[in-house]
Structures are given as C-alpha cells and as structure tokens.
C-alpha cells in the first residue's frame, strides 16, 4: 500500500499525522517480510526508516526473523525503569555490583549501565521491578514476542530472558519500537522517553549524530553450553541528521558474521559508515 493511500485513508478517519506515520511504518516494515526473508536468506539484516513519515529507506536481509535482543533490551528496560520511577536520572541510582571473587566490578549508574553494557545492572533493575511488573511492562510495550519466562523449566526469566533465551524480537520490530518511542507513541511517560534518550550512547558520523545500543550473545547448544563461534550481534537506535530529520535503524548479524572479534563493535562501525550513504547529505 502506497504512502499516499495510507495518508488519504487516515485523513478520512481523522487520524493525526503522527498516527499516519506510525501506521505507514508498520505497513512498510511488514510488507513482503516473509517472502523477503526466504528469498534473501541472509544471516542478518540492515533496516532504516524515517521516523516522521514512516518511509522505509533501506531493508536488506532477513529483517522479519526474531532473535534474542541481548543488550539492546536495555532500551526497553530503561523506558520501564524511568516510567516506574526506579531510574531517576542519568546518574541515579548508583547500585553496587554483586560480590564476584573472580571479577572486578564497579558501582554503576544508568549512563554507565548503557555505555558499558552492564548485565548485572539490568538484572538488579528487573529485581526492583519484581516478576509481575516486569512481565506486565514488557507486554504493555509490545516488545517482540513479550516472553520473559526464560529457559524452559528454570524460572530464570528475571536473570536472562533477553540473553539467548525466551524473549525474541526482529530487526523490523526493533525499528518500529524505536520509532514509536521517538514519536512518543509508547505507553510510557514523556519523562521516561527523555530519560532514556539522555543516557543512550552517542556517536558522530558525517552529517549526523547516531544514538544506539549494541548487543551480543552466544548461541547455546542442546546442553545449554554457550558456543563462542556461533554468536549474534546487534546495533539498534536512531540517527539525527544536521538538517533535522530522524531515522530509526537496526543492524543484525549472526553465525560467522556475528562471531568474534567484538561483533557488535564491528556492526556499529558498519552502521556509522553506511548511514551517511543512505540518509546523509547528497544521499539518493
């Protein structure tokens, strides 16, 4: 369905421009998704959409297939934490790490939580929420398959549902989620959105500032043993161009493409290189 048709129908229904953008983004991300995934068969995805208009700028690879979000779930956890009043600012609260004789850990605040991708801080936040609110809030946000039960029969959903476990989300859904957040369409407070934006890591690229979160996890075999040679990696976020436009993006890779060394850092570098070609000055 063309954008013109969506806009016309929305105007007749009395929908706002924001609602039109949201509706068109959902249609654009979902159009032909199963066929595209099967035809291209790529072990990854790069997808970019205009937040204001919902127009799809780029979509390459299997973007409809769901995967573990790994640390990109911190975006949703941040929104939930600020919305519930557990997180109160870029540097509050500061939590002390759990005792671990084998590793050196330091006190962490919301900014360093995202910047350093601190797993135990996520787990502490989930415990502060409690099991009921945790499940309720993920469902309320409509995040991926909203399954935070964890590994079957273990009851470990509060510790690792998002780390190669029950929670799954596709790159297309990641982009729709980011765009909905930026348009203030998610069922959270404006303060939760501004708090999350304030702590998101940022990176410079030609003609824009890119904000986003990496994520990585090792797939596990049938015995539950992590396989370092079989990894998944993400970089998810948005770009704010110098001329005032905003674009949501998701980049995903797995298998050999997602493996060592430092797969999310490589994906981030790839996105920072490719975004200016897609949406920067002079981009077609």
UniProtKB/TrEMBL annotation:
The lineage of its organism: Bacteria, Pseudomonadati, Pseudomonadota, Alphaproteobacteria, Hyphomicrobiales. Its EC number is 3.5.2.6. The modification N6-carboxylysine is found at residue 74. Residues 1-38 form the signal peptide. It comes from Acuticoccus sediminis. Belongs to the class-D beta-lactamase family. This is Beta-lactamase. The active site is at residue 71. InterPro entries: Beta-lactam/transpept-like, Beta-lactam_class-D_AS, PCN-bd_Tpept. GO terms for molecular function: beta-lactamase activity; penicillin binding. One of its GO terms (biological process) is antibiotic catabolic process. The keyword Signal applies.
